[in-house]
Amino acid sequence: MAERKRRKSLSGVVISNKMQNTIVVEVERLVRHPVIGKVVRRRRKVYADHSEDIQIGDRVVVVETRPLSKLKRWRVFQKLG
Which of 6, 31, 65, 72 has the most CB atoms at less than 10 Å from its CB? Predict the structure, then answer.
């Protein structure tokens, strides 16, 4: 039998918790600019499902999951701080 693949995970900072059972997490990564060579920050917002008490500013780890709604494709795996 084929083994299951590990799910993708991202870590980021919670920027909104105003929805029911949903938070918005800003994920930041560093990328080298192809022409200039300077390291630039790239940010992306992901919508994640959660059940525990999470506040704005908390660092969280989210893992990929099945589509839960129109935008929600991630689930909170761990709260880091």
Answer: 72
